Amino acid sequence: MDVANATSATNGSSQAGKAAAVFGKDFDTFLQLLTTQLQYQDPLSPMDSTQFTQQLVSFTSVEQQIATNKNLESIISRLASQDIAGAVAYIGKEVYAVGDKAPLQNGQASWNYGLDLRAEETKITVRDGAGRVVYETKGETAPGAHTFEWDGRTNSGGTAPDGIYSLEVAATSAAGNAIGSNIFIRGIVEGVERVAGENLLAINGVLLPVDNIQSIGLPKPNDPSS
Question: Are residues 69 and 110 in the same domain?
Answer without folding.
Answer: no
